[in-house]
Design goal:
The protein is an alpha+beta fold and about 400 residues long. The protein folds into two domains: about 150 residues, Chloramphenicol Acetyltransferase; about 250 residues, Chloramphenicol Acetyltransferase (2-Layer Sandwich). The protein contains twelve helices and 16 strands. The longest helix is centred in the middle third of the chain and has 24 residues. The model has no long low-confidence stretch (mean pLDDT about 90).
Amino acid sequence: MTETLRPKRVALIDRPWLSHRTVVLATPLAVRPPGEIRAMLAEFMRTNPTAPISCRLDPKSNRWLPVPAAEQATHLDRSVIATNDPDPADLSGHVLAHQSMVPDLPILVAVGPESILLQVCHALGDATTVIQLLFALVQADVREIDCLAQRVGTAVPARALIGNAWSHHRDWVSFLRHRGRPPTAQPIGPAATPKPCVAGATLSNAALRDITRWRNANAPGVSLTCVLTAATHTALIRRAVPMDDRGCYALIDMRSVLPKRPEPYWGNLSKSLYLAADPADPRSVDSAMRTARKTHRALPASVVGAVSSVATRRRASTTRQPPVAPVSLTFNSIPLLPRLSDLPWRDQVSRRFFAFGPSRGPSGISVTAIRLRGHMELSASFDEATVKPETMRDALESLSDITSLNAD
């Protein structure tokens, strides 16, 4: 009986992500109705009552609380709701209309006739985990979600850290001694209540070909991710946003350095790293990114972050905060999300996949780029005190003309 099950502490590796949420909007899809999705989640809860997806999160003690059987129906009614489909020309508006910070729900699902909007507590896992959850929800197939009952704890990256220590300990020590630190942000205006915003744009395949040609001519060998990172920084600078000129953040996936195994690793296995580089220069960003990957810097950063989370309890701030400068940029490029093409799309040409992590204050802008068959989807999360939505949208749209953007 779930009533007798004891609460479980949030794993150390997940604690740094407790105040973060991931939002995904996909359309047009052949999605199952809310009732079937609730029934699938109820079946999962019966067999995996202590899995985080089955629980409530106590925001005070940071524990996963199993849901008593008598309360599961109400819990699922809160977790899965019916809604309308979004206007394809205003995905941001659809997201903002359903923006809800429900601190005790690990997932919140808004199901339209041909769409699904999913909000996930980041403590459940990273993008790879979220897309697997999305796939299960869209099809209301418990077989697709059962694998998420087993998630990676801190021990797996810790063992990988020990296994790579001999090869990379000098690199890690050197980084600690000489690492570039993000500048301290200073207030530049009166305090106000945070107002999280989101904006998006698309890059056509023709625009992506132009960006590739520009890269080949001006920064050969540099990844498109780093080209787009630098272009985004430049676009924001040109719109008078006071960006950090010492570096930027990137998410580094650790799965490639973990022991090989037949089944995927589920959980939080991506780490946000500060790259000390000239964020306006794609070659500088690329060099810092390659160094971080080559030295497996995400391993010690992840383990240290997990251990330090014991003493630091992070929550999303709702207090008044002033706008600050400089503003940090996090650019996340996801060229190929596993199984994304396997979703039951109604139309391959018009499909949209909007994903981001909501802003946690005026000190940063987070941009996510996801490649689909016909275009690249760009979504930005930020605070309105940092940049106006129309300015952010204009900056993203300007990436389609890479030559003009990089003209002196």
